[in-house]
Amino acid sequence: MLRPRLPPEFLAFPLAHRGYHDASLRRPENSLSAFAAAIDAGYGIELDVQRSADGQAMVFHDDTLDRMAMASGRVLAQDAAALARTRIRASDDYIPVLSDVLSLVAGRVPVLIEIKENLDTMLPTEGVLEAAVARALKSYAGPVAVMSFNPHCVVHMARLLPDVARGLTTEDYDPTNNVPIPPDVCARLREIPDYDITGASFISHKVSDLGRPRVAALKMQGADILCWTVRSPDQEAVARKIAQNTTFEGYAAAIPA
């Protein structure tokens, strides 16, 4: 299986978590305004995609609309046109389609796409959301990579876009913080067993768990190590002793010279 490497831009530009968002400036997470702000500041972009009822890749983090949008219910229950008409709370933004975000970015900064599918169970997926991401990326020329907590999503991406860098989003999988994922599944995923079978070339690991021996072993093996989510310069300084780049929010990360 091909194991495409992260484009070098992913190790040079700090990645703004869900865009360079700031609620006080009416710039919500995963919005076009947050992505535009990241581009203007010289940051890369990390974003999330959820599946619409008609199988489109919508840029939104939660399974449900209630926390962030002027609507309620599951994202999966609405088609893409309805979601694109749904305003994000306390802003003038609407939920974007992935293709609209890619058109805005147009290759100017790296884009890291996290695929949100079956994360409550980590069971196999139907591949519908992954296929939507692949369609959006087919003609995209900028630096891009895909990742997911769910290894099955990454396997789909290996099949659909074998030349695009792919990785695993990883963490300590404390079962008390990951309900309803079954404890035995948490125990398995904690040691990142699917790195090789997914053809991953990187992980994005929880910042508080970067000292895990498996992370060091993967780095020694040649994996690129990113991390999530850094929330202060002090935390970033510690993280960069292990991670080659960070996903950050809540402050202005320095861009390395």
Structure description:
By secondary structure, the protein is an alpha/beta fold. Helices cover 26% and strands 18% of the residues. The protein is built from eight helices and nine strands. Strands 1-2-4-5-6-7-8-9 form an eight-stranded parallel beta barrel, surrounded by six helices. β2 and β3 (57-59) form a beta hairpin. α1 (32-41) packs parallel to α3. It is globular, with a radius of gyration of 17 Å. The termini are far apart. The relative contact order is 0.15. The model has no long low-confidence stretch (mean pLDDT 97).
Radius of gyration: 17 Å
Low confidence ranges: none
Q: Into which percent range does the helicity of residues fall? A: 25-40%
- Based on helices, strands and strand pairing, what is the structural class? alpha/beta
Largest sheet: 8 strands, parallel, barrel
Shape: globular
Distance between the termini: 35 Å
Strand-residue proportion: 15-25%
- List how many beta strands DSSP finds: 9
Overall mean pLDDT = 97
Strands across the major sheet, in which order?
1-2-4-5-6-7-8-9
Q: Please report the number of helical segments.
A: 8
Order of helices and strands: EHEEHHEHEHEHEHEHE
Jot down its keywords.
alpha/beta, eight-stranded parallel barrel, 9 strands, globular
